[in-house]
Model the fold of this input.
Amino acid sequence: MHVLTVTTYADAPFMTQQQAALEERGVSFSTVSVAGEVDADTSRGPTDYLRTIPEVVREAGNGYDLIHAHYGLTGPMALAQVRKPVVLSLWGSDVHGPVAPVSRASAPFCDEVVVMSEEMRDLLGRDCTVIPDGVDLEKFRPEPQDRARKRIGWDDSDGYDVLFPYSPAREVKNYPRAERVATVVDNLLEGPVRLRTVSGVDHDAVSDYMNAADAMLLTSHSEGSPNSVKEALACNLPVVAVDVGDVRERLAGVESSHVAANDEELVRGLLDVLERGERSNGREAAREVSINRTAERMLEVYERVAGQVIETEDSRKKRRVQEPSRLD
Done:
């Protein structure tokens, strides 16, 4: 099966990891990225999206089985070609934020819509498939904390390190709230509490920060299915988070971790985690959203939309189990 990906961010780790897992299952990909350069001070404008449409239409004629549009603003671009079925994956901010009307307008014309959480499905207000982004359990795994701290250069031997795995400049992540909560907890504990922000590092290094920290704090205004929470679970890093996206579902049964409704509960949860000083049992919960499981579910979407079935080793094993023996 050959899939054309249309995306705003061709290097998004969760997307490229999913593609790699699907390639192992017999899917090949080509990618068209929206025109224009994006950085901390520059964002794409309407003309960048408009001038990418002809490229998508031209490329769609090159023998693809389906078009997979990632992020709501790419939906109209994928739909501009009328020959191939379209799968639209929504990432979270395209359902919660200002581009939500574009996502809602495009969704009814797509052959399948994939969202990351039940909350997103409810907000979208239509039938769609819920598939959280998967976590690579080989890349994100528990490691000795001392070794991870040495690897990233955290030399402080006293106090506590709380991970905020985003840039403080990303408004939706609500860094001021995280800073406020960490300051209160710092005043309540004997040792210092350091709020460590991490952004702009290679994705392969993020697991070192997860293993080096004592807890992760998530204070976002909105989320779909935050990858940082699943990555923290895979490393057995305790998580204290607000109730956004699928966080409550992901942290169900995980000790020690907390889902909070307000600042007071965030403070109590972070205080509890740091005082206990224990790793969580999150890795077992992370298996539910491993990249292999989520890739299998996305493959089922592709097969349904394209009207074809890819023969994989797993499918062959299942068939052998289901087929009656010739001796019966």
